[in-house]
Predict the structure of Alpha-ketoglutarate-dependent dioxygenase AlkB-like domain-containing protein.
Amino acid sequence: MQPPVKKRKAINDFFIPIAKSPKTSKAPIRIENSCNNTEPVLGPQKTPVPGLTIHHDFISPTEEASLLAFLNDPSKCIWRTDLSRLTMHFGGTYCLMPSKTSSPSPTKPQILQAPPMPNELHWILQRMVDNGISAPNQKPQYCIVNEYTGSLGISAHTENFQFSEPVEDWEGGGCGDAGEEFVGYERAE
């Protein structure tokens, strides 16, 4: 009999992997809301993933439209195009690790100083406090916006050591089964 494996489970252990598709061009893209979610789910929903909670319909369709209009306004927000997906960073300093290459020469992480958290996001930070997701003295200080299209996704990773718990994720601007969702990740005991 083999001893049990003590490897901690990663988030991707709970999901079926999606086949990767070839990279697409980096043409300018607008995030759009393609959902018609009409079935509200009240309260947080626990999941089989330890520490993962989902808050369906955390923001209204009108609020989502306003948020997407802000993110798509080039006079207020600029998409980074140097990663495999479009992204925006707000608040604080980020350390982006270099891509793994076959080159024997070491590459250094890129330190990014992001613009401050914009006023257009403060209402959602306050809602996190009002709903008990964040403590009043621990509102999120950082925000990363990622645009995923097709089968594009993000690999398993550990968040920056500066990020405290919980790590929150808003899934919006697309559809699938989710609609407008807010996801909170906390350390599992």
User: Anything to note?
Assistant: Residues 9 and 83 are 26 Å apart (CA to CA). DSSP finds two helices and eight strands in the chain.
